[in-house]
Protein backbone atom coordinates (compact mmCIF):
# COMPACT_ATOMS: atom_id res chain seq x y z
CA UNK A 1 0.00 0.00 0.00
CA UNK A 2 1.36 3.42 -0.86
CA UNK A 3 0.32 6.93 0.14
CA UNK A 4 -0.43 9.84 -2.10
CA UNK A 5 -0.85 12.17 0.87
CA UNK A 6 2.29 14.08 0.04
CA UNK A 7 0.88 16.41 -2.56
CA UNK A 8 2.88 19.45 -1.51
CA UNK A 9 1.29 21.68 -4.14
CA UNK A 10 -1.95 22.37 -2.27
CA UNK A 11 -0.45 23.16 1.16
CA UNK A 12 1.94 25.71 2.71
CA UNK A 13 5.57 25.02 1.78
CA UNK A 14 7.64 23.54 4.61
CA UNK A 15 11.41 23.64 5.07
CA UNK A 16 14.17 22.05 7.08
CA UNK A 17 15.54 24.90 9.19
CA UNK A 18 18.30 22.97 10.97
CA UNK A 19 19.86 19.52 11.23
CA UNK A 20 22.01 17.76 13.82
CA UNK A 21 23.48 14.35 14.52
CA UNK A 22 25.29 12.40 17.18
CA UNK A 23 27.06 9.04 17.43
CA UNK A 24 28.45 7.48 20.61
CA UNK A 25 32.21 7.54 21.26
CA UNK A 26 32.97 3.81 21.24
CA UNK A 27 33.92 2.39 17.83
CA UNK A 28 33.63 -1.33 17.04
CA UNK A 29 35.66 -2.25 13.95
CA UNK A 30 35.33 -5.25 11.66
CA UNK A 31 38.60 -6.52 13.16
CA UNK A 32 37.04 -6.31 16.64
CA UNK A 33 34.12 -8.42 15.34
CA UNK A 34 36.57 -11.04 13.99
CA UNK A 35 37.35 -11.77 17.65
CA UNK A 36 33.68 -12.13 18.59
CA UNK A 37 32.12 -14.25 15.77
CA UNK A 38 33.33 -16.25 12.76
CA UNK A 39 33.62 -13.41 10.27
CA UNK A 40 36.26 -11.33 8.52
CA UNK A 41 36.89 -7.71 7.62
CA UNK A 42 37.07 -8.87 4.03
CA UNK A 43 33.59 -10.50 4.10
CA UNK A 44 31.91 -7.56 5.84
CA UNK A 45 33.58 -4.96 3.60
CA UNK A 46 32.91 -6.76 0.32
CA UNK A 47 29.31 -7.83 1.14
CA UNK A 48 28.17 -4.58 2.84
CA UNK A 49 30.73 -1.74 2.62
CA UNK A 50 30.75 -1.40 6.42
CA UNK A 51 34.15 -0.94 8.15
CA UNK A 52 33.11 0.13 11.65
CA UNK A 53 30.12 1.17 13.74
CA UNK A 54 29.57 3.21 16.94
CA UNK A 55 28.21 1.51 20.05
CA UNK A 56 26.43 3.32 22.89
CA UNK A 57 27.57 2.86 26.48
CA UNK A 58 25.41 0.81 28.84
CA UNK A 59 24.00 3.94 30.45
CA UNK A 60 23.56 5.85 27.18
CA UNK A 61 19.99 5.41 25.91
CA UNK A 62 18.23 6.20 22.64
CA UNK A 63 16.72 9.36 24.19
CA UNK A 64 20.19 10.62 25.20
CA UNK A 65 21.53 10.29 21.64
CA UNK A 66 18.29 11.81 20.29
CA UNK A 67 18.69 14.81 22.63
CA UNK A 68 22.30 15.45 21.53
CA UNK A 69 21.27 15.41 17.86
CA UNK A 70 18.23 17.59 18.60
CA UNK A 71 20.30 20.22 20.43
CA UNK A 72 22.54 20.54 17.37
CA UNK A 73 19.56 20.88 15.02
CA UNK A 74 17.94 23.49 17.30
CA UNK A 75 21.20 25.43 17.49
CA UNK A 76 21.50 25.54 13.70
CA UNK A 77 17.87 26.66 13.41
CA UNK A 78 18.46 29.38 16.04
CA UNK A 79 15.71 27.94 18.26
CA UNK A 80 15.28 26.48 21.73
CA UNK A 81 13.24 23.61 23.11
CA UNK A 82 10.48 25.94 24.27
CA UNK A 83 9.91 27.06 20.65
CA UNK A 84 8.81 23.56 19.61
CA UNK A 85 5.16 22.56 19.07
CA UNK A 86 5.79 18.95 18.03
CA UNK A 87 8.46 16.30 18.62
CA UNK A 88 8.41 13.00 16.74
CA UNK A 89 11.05 10.37 17.46
CA UNK A 90 11.35 7.58 14.88
CA UNK A 91 12.82 4.51 16.57
CA UNK A 92 12.52 0.74 16.89
CA UNK A 93 14.75 0.75 19.98
CA UNK A 94 12.88 3.02 22.44
CA UNK A 95 14.19 3.59 25.97
CA UNK A 96 11.01 1.94 27.27
CA UNK A 97 7.94 0.39 25.61
CA UNK A 98 5.99 3.23 27.20
CA UNK A 99 6.21 6.18 27.56
CA UNK A 100 7.48 7.17 24.14
CA UNK A 101 11.16 8.11 23.76
CA UNK A 102 9.92 11.49 22.48
CA UNK A 103 8.58 12.22 26.00
CA UNK A 104 12.05 11.80 27.54
CA UNK A 105 13.46 14.03 24.80
CA UNK A 106 10.76 16.66 25.45
CA UNK A 107 11.79 16.75 29.09
CA UNK A 108 15.53 16.99 28.44
CA UNK A 109 15.05 19.79 25.87
CA UNK A 110 12.67 21.71 28.16
CA UNK A 111 10.21 21.66 25.24
CA UNK A 112 7.23 22.06 27.55
CA UNK A 113 4.76 23.24 24.92
CA UNK A 114 5.46 20.42 22.45
CA UNK A 115 3.34 17.35 21.97
CA UNK A 116 5.62 14.35 21.69
CA UNK A 117 5.26 10.82 20.40
CA UNK A 118 7.20 8.05 18.61
CA UNK A 119 6.82 6.55 15.16
CA UNK A 120 7.74 2.90 14.56
CA UNK A 121 8.48 2.50 10.85
CA UNK A 122 11.96 0.96 11.18
CA UNK A 123 14.58 2.33 8.79
CA UNK A 124 11.96 4.46 7.00
CA UNK A 125 10.92 6.10 10.28
CA UNK A 126 12.76 9.41 9.88
CA UNK A 127 11.13 10.01 6.48
CA UNK A 128 7.72 8.98 7.87
CA UNK A 129 8.25 11.57 10.64
CA UNK A 130 9.31 14.14 8.03
CA UNK A 131 6.07 13.65 6.10
CA UNK A 132 3.72 13.77 9.10
CA UNK A 133 5.46 16.82 10.59
CA UNK A 134 5.38 18.48 7.17
CA UNK A 135 1.64 17.91 6.85
CA UNK A 136 0.99 19.22 10.38
CA UNK A 137 2.91 22.42 9.61
CA UNK A 138 1.48 22.77 6.11
CA UNK A 139 -2.05 22.46 7.47
CA UNK A 140 -1.33 25.13 10.09
CA UNK A 141 -1.87 22.91 13.15
CA UNK A 142 1.73 23.37 14.41
CA UNK A 143 4.43 25.93 13.61
CA UNK A 144 7.70 24.29 14.55
CA UNK A 145 8.46 20.57 14.64
CA UNK A 146 11.48 18.52 15.64
CA UNK A 147 11.88 15.13 14.01
CA UNK A 148 14.51 12.65 15.16
CA UNK A 149 15.69 9.23 14.01
CA UNK A 150 17.47 7.56 16.93
CA UNK A 151 18.52 3.99 17.62
CA UNK A 152 20.39 1.91 20.16
CA UNK A 153 20.41 -1.20 17.98
CA UNK A 154 23.33 -2.68 19.91
CA UNK A 155 20.82 -3.46 22.68
CA UNK A 156 18.67 -5.51 20.25
CA UNK A 157 21.34 -7.52 18.44
CA UNK A 158 22.31 -11.12 19.08
CA UNK A 159 26.07 -10.68 19.42
CA UNK A 160 26.61 -14.39 18.67
CA UNK A 161 24.79 -14.25 15.28
CA UNK A 162 27.22 -13.26 12.52
CA UNK A 163 24.35 -12.89 10.02
CA UNK A 164 23.13 -9.76 11.82
CA UNK A 165 25.58 -8.51 14.45
CA UNK A 166 28.07 -7.16 11.91
CA UNK A 167 25.47 -4.95 10.25
CA UNK A 168 24.15 -2.53 12.85
CA UNK A 169 25.28 0.52 14.84
CA UNK A 170 23.94 3.22 17.19
CA UNK A 171 23.34 6.93 16.67
CA UNK A 172 20.82 9.72 16.11
CA UNK A 173 20.01 12.44 13.61
CA UNK A 174 17.49 15.28 13.85
CA UNK A 175 15.87 18.04 11.83
CA UNK A 176 13.83 21.13 12.76
CA UNK A 177 10.94 21.87 10.39
CA UNK A 178 9.03 25.11 9.94
CA UNK A 179 6.96 26.90 7.28
CA UNK A 180 8.93 28.46 4.47
CA UNK A 181 8.55 32.23 4.77
CA UNK A 182 10.92 33.60 2.10
CA UNK A 183 11.94 32.32 -1.31
CA UNK A 184 15.57 32.46 -0.11
CA UNK A 185 14.88 29.99 2.75
CA UNK A 186 16.85 26.77 2.24
CA UNK A 187 15.73 23.19 2.83
CA UNK A 188 12.35 23.33 1.06
CA UNK A 189 10.56 19.97 0.94
CA UNK A 190 9.42 19.55 -2.68
CA UNK A 191 7.77 16.14 -2.46
CA UNK A 192 7.54 12.94 -0.49
CA UNK A 193 6.16 9.44 -0.78
CA UNK A 194 5.50 6.68 1.76
CA UNK A 195 4.69 2.99 1.36
CA UNK A 196 4.02 -0.13 3.46
CA UNK A 197 3.68 -3.86 2.72
CA UNK A 198 2.40 -5.71 5.80
CA UNK A 199 2.52 -9.08 4.00
CA UNK A 200 6.27 -9.22 4.59
CA UNK A 201 6.47 -8.81 8.38
CA UNK A 202 8.31 -12.14 8.75
CA UNK A 203 11.48 -11.32 6.77
CA UNK A 204 12.78 -8.62 9.10
CA UNK A 205 11.67 -8.29 12.69
CA UNK A 206 12.35 -8.46 16.42
CA UNK A 207 10.10 -11.40 17.31
CA UNK A 208 10.15 -11.19 21.12
CA UNK A 209 9.61 -8.57 23.79
CA UNK A 210 6.15 -7.49 22.61
CA UNK A 211 2.70 -8.79 23.60
CA UNK A 212 2.89 -11.62 21.05
CA UNK A 213 5.95 -13.10 22.71
CA UNK A 214 6.91 -11.58 26.07
CA UNK A 215 10.41 -12.42 27.29
CA UNK A 216 10.11 -14.96 30.10
CA UNK A 217 12.53 -16.92 32.24
CA UNK A 218 11.88 -19.91 29.96
CA UNK A 219 12.71 -18.20 26.63
CA UNK A 220 15.26 -15.61 27.80
CA UNK A 221 18.22 -17.44 26.26
CA UNK A 222 16.76 -17.74 22.76
CA UNK A 223 17.68 -14.17 21.73
CA UNK A 224 14.05 -13.45 20.82
CA UNK A 225 14.41 -9.74 21.54
CA UNK A 226 17.11 -9.44 18.87
CA UNK A 227 16.87 -8.45 15.20
CA UNK A 228 16.16 -11.35 12.88
CA UNK A 229 16.50 -11.01 9.10
CA UNK A 230 16.26 -13.05 5.91
CA UNK A 231 19.02 -11.02 4.29
CA UNK A 232 18.69 -12.05 0.64
CA UNK A 233 14.91 -11.53 0.58
CA UNK A 234 15.21 -8.15 2.27
CA UNK A 235 17.95 -7.18 -0.18
CA UNK A 236 15.72 -7.83 -3.22
CA UNK A 237 12.73 -6.00 -1.73
CA UNK A 238 14.94 -3.07 -0.71
CA UNK A 239 16.27 -2.55 -4.24
CA UNK A 240 12.80 -2.66 -5.84
CA UNK A 241 11.03 -0.54 -3.24
CA UNK A 242 13.73 2.15 -3.01
CA UNK A 243 14.04 2.46 -6.77
CA UNK A 244 10.26 2.88 -7.16
CA UNK A 245 9.98 5.26 -4.20
CA UNK A 246 12.79 7.37 -5.66
CA UNK A 247 11.09 7.59 -9.04
CA UNK A 248 7.77 8.60 -7.47
CA UNK A 249 9.25 11.37 -5.28
CA UNK A 250 11.30 12.72 -8.20
CA UNK A 251 8.23 12.77 -10.44
CA UNK A 252 6.04 14.39 -7.76
CA UNK A 253 8.66 17.15 -7.47
CA UNK A 254 8.31 17.76 -11.22
CA UNK A 255 11.91 16.64 -11.82
CA UNK A 256 13.83 13.84 -13.53
CA UNK A 257 16.73 11.87 -12.05
CA UNK A 258 19.12 14.14 -14.00
CA UNK A 259 17.95 17.06 -11.85
CA UNK A 260 18.99 15.29 -8.62
CA UNK A 261 22.33 16.66 -7.36
CA UNK A 262 22.72 14.26 -4.44
CA UNK A 263 21.06 11.03 -3.29
CA UNK A 264 21.08 10.36 0.44
CA UNK A 265 19.95 6.73 0.71
CA UNK A 266 19.34 4.48 3.71
CA UNK A 267 22.77 3.22 4.74
CA UNK A 268 22.30 -0.58 4.98
CA UNK A 269 24.45 -2.02 2.23
CA UNK A 270 26.65 -0.44 -0.45
CA UNK A 271 25.55 -3.07 -2.97
CA UNK A 272 21.88 -2.10 -2.46
CA UNK A 273 22.75 1.59 -2.92
CA UNK A 274 24.74 0.85 -6.10
CA UNK A 275 21.89 -1.25 -7.52
CA UNK A 276 19.35 1.54 -6.95
CA UNK A 277 21.46 4.40 -8.27
CA UNK A 278 22.52 2.33 -11.32
CA UNK A 279 18.84 1.75 -12.14
CA UNK A 280 18.11 5.47 -11.65
CA UNK A 281 21.15 6.31 -13.83
CA UNK A 282 22.65 8.47 -11.07
CA UNK A 283 26.46 8.44 -10.99
CA UNK A 284 28.35 7.42 -7.84
CA UNK A 285 29.74 10.93 -7.27
CA UNK A 286 26.13 12.06 -6.67
CA UNK A 287 25.51 9.57 -3.84
CA UNK A 288 26.30 10.26 -0.17
CA UNK A 289 27.73 7.29 1.71
CA UNK A 290 28.71 7.05 5.38
CA UNK A 291 27.83 3.43 6.17
CA UNK A 292 31.52 2.57 6.22
CA UNK A 293 31.76 4.57 9.49
CA UNK A 294 28.39 3.84 11.13
CA UNK A 295 26.88 0.61 9.71
CA UNK A 296 23.11 0.43 9.53
CA UNK A 297 21.61 2.73 12.19
CA UNK A 298 18.01 2.12 11.01
CA UNK A 299 15.84 5.24 11.54
CA UNK A 300 18.92 7.32 12.33
CA UNK A 301 20.76 6.52 9.08
CA UNK A 302 19.19 8.99 6.64
CA UNK A 303 19.01 11.63 9.40
CA UNK A 304 22.72 11.38 10.24
CA UNK A 305 23.66 11.34 6.55
CA UNK A 306 21.48 14.40 5.84
CA UNK A 307 23.21 16.33 8.62
CA UNK A 308 26.71 15.29 7.54
CA UNK A 309 26.05 15.96 3.86
CA UNK A 310 24.51 19.40 4.34
CA UNK A 311 27.25 20.52 6.73
CA UNK A 312 29.93 19.42 4.24
CA UNK A 313 30.78 20.61 0.74
CA UNK A 314 28.74 17.69 -0.67
CA UNK A 315 25.73 20.07 -0.79
CA UNK A 316 25.55 23.59 -2.28
CA UNK A 317 22.67 26.06 -1.98
CA UNK A 318 19.97 25.20 -4.52
CA UNK A 319 20.96 21.52 -4.78
CA UNK A 320 18.12 19.03 -5.09
CA UNK A 321 18.54 16.14 -2.67
CA UNK A 322 16.73 12.81 -2.90
CA UNK A 323 16.27 11.01 0.43
CA UNK A 324 15.17 7.38 0.25
CA UNK A 325 14.80 4.63 2.85
CA UNK A 326 13.55 1.08 3.32
CA UNK A 327 13.03 -1.11 6.37
CA UNK A 328 11.05 -3.63 8.39
CA UNK A 329 7.30 -3.64 7.91
CA UNK A 330 8.07 -3.62 5.11
CA UNK A 331 8.16 0.16 4.87
CA UNK A 332 9.72 2.54 2.37
CA UNK A 333 9.82 6.31 2.00
CA UNK A 334 11.34 9.03 -0.12
CA UNK A 335 11.49 12.82 -0.31
CA UNK A 336 13.03 15.50 -2.51
CA UNK A 337 14.42 18.62 -0.83
CA UNK A 338 15.81 21.80 -2.39
CA UNK A 339 18.74 22.99 -0.29
O1 LIG B 1 17.90 -1.81 7.16
C1 LIG B 1 16.84 -2.59 6.74
C2 LIG B 1 17.10 -3.19 5.46
N1 LIG B 1 18.18 -4.16 5.56
C3 LIG B 1 18.84 -4.43 4.48
O2 LIG B 1 18.59 -3.83 3.46
C4 LIG B 1 19.82 -5.57 4.49
C5 LIG B 1 19.61 -6.42 3.25
N2 LIG B 1 20.45 -7.59 3.14
C6 LIG B 1 21.81 -7.50 3.01
O3 LIG B 1 22.38 -6.44 3.07
C7 LIG B 1 22.58 -8.76 2.72
O4 LIG B 1 21.67 -9.79 2.37
C8 LIG B 1 23.47 -9.24 3.91
C9 LIG B 1 24.64 -8.29 4.07
C10 LIG B 1 22.66 -9.30 5.18
C11 LIG B 1 24.03 -10.63 3.62
O5 LIG B 1 24.75 -10.60 2.37
P1 LIG B 1 24.48 -11.72 1.27
O6 LIG B 1 25.39 -11.47 0.17
O7 LIG B 1 22.99 -11.69 0.99
O8 LIG B 1 24.93 -13.02 2.01
P2 LIG B 1 24.08 -14.32 2.35
O9 LIG B 1 23.13 -14.05 3.47
O10 LIG B 1 23.52 -14.84 1.07
O11 LIG B 1 25.23 -15.27 2.86
C12 LIG B 1 26.31 -15.68 2.01
C13 LIG B 1 27.27 -16.51 2.81
C14 LIG B 1 26.61 -17.60 3.63
O12 LIG B 1 27.45 -18.73 3.63
P3 LIG B 1 27.16 -19.96 2.63
O13 LIG B 1 25.77 -20.42 2.96
O14 LIG B 1 27.25 -19.39 1.24
O15 LIG B 1 28.24 -20.92 2.96
C15 LIG B 1 26.57 -17.03 5.03
O16 LIG B 1 26.56 -18.02 6.02
O17 LIG B 1 27.96 -15.67 3.75
C16 LIG B 1 27.86 -16.23 5.06
N3 LIG B 1 27.84 -15.14 6.03
C17 LIG B 1 28.96 -14.65 6.58
N4 LIG B 1 30.26 -14.94 6.42
C18 LIG B 1 31.18 -14.23 7.12
C19 LIG B 1 26.76 -14.47 6.50
N5 LIG B 1 27.18 -13.53 7.40
C20 LIG B 1 28.53 -13.62 7.45
C21 LIG B 1 29.51 -12.92 8.15
N6 LIG B 1 30.82 -13.25 7.97
N7 LIG B 1 29.21 -11.91 9.00
What are the distinct ligands in this entry?
Answer: oxa(dethia)-CoA
Number of strands: 14
CATH class of the largest domain: Alpha Beta
- From the N-terminal CA to the C-terminal CA, the straight-line distance is 30 Å
Total of helices: 10
Query: What is the percent of helical residues?
Result: 25-40%
CATH topology description of the largest domain: Peroxisomal Thiolase, Chain A, domain 1
Integer tally of domains: 2
Q: Mind describing the biggest β-sheet?
A: 5 strands, mixed
Shape: globular
For the biggest β-sheet, the strand order reads 1-9-14-13-12
What is the CATH superfamily of the largest domain? Answer: Thiolase/Chalcone synthase
Reported CATH architecture of the largest domain: 3-Layer(aba) Sandwich
C-alpha Rg (nearest Å): 19 Å
Describe this structure in words.
- The chain has 339 residues and is α+β, with helices and mostly antiparallel strands.
- It folds into two domains: 8-179, 3-Layer(aba) Sandwich (Peroxisomal Thiolase, Chain A, domain 1); 188-338, Thiolase/Chalcone synthase (Peroxisomal Thiolase, Chain A, domain 1).
- The protein contains ten helices and 14 strands.
- The chain has helices at 30-34, 41-48, 62-77, 101-109, 125-138, 162-165, 231-252, 270-279, 291-294, 300-311, and strands at 2-3, 14-22, 26-29, 52-55, 86-90, 115-119, 144-152, 170-179, 188-196, 204-205, 228-229, 262-265, 320-327, 331-338.
- It has a five-stranded mixed beta sheet, sandwiched between helices. A five-stranded mixed beta sheet has the order 2-8-7-5-6, sandwiched between helices. The protein has a two-stranded antiparallel sheet with strand order 3-4.
- α3 crosses α4.
- It is globular.
- 53% of the residues are buried.
- Oxa(dethia)-CoA is lined by residues 39, 43-44, 47-48, 123, 162-163, 166, 231-232, 234-235, 238, 268-269, 272, 296, 326-327.
Amino acid sequence: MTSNAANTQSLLPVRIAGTGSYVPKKILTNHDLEKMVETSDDWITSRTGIKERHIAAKDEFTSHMATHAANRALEQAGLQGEDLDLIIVATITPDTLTPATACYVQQSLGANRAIAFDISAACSGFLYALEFARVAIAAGSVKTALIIGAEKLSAFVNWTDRDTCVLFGDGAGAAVLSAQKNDSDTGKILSSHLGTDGKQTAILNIPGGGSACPITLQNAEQHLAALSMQGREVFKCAVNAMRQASEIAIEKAGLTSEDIDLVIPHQANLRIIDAITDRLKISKDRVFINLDKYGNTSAAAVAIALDEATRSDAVKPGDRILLVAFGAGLTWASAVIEW
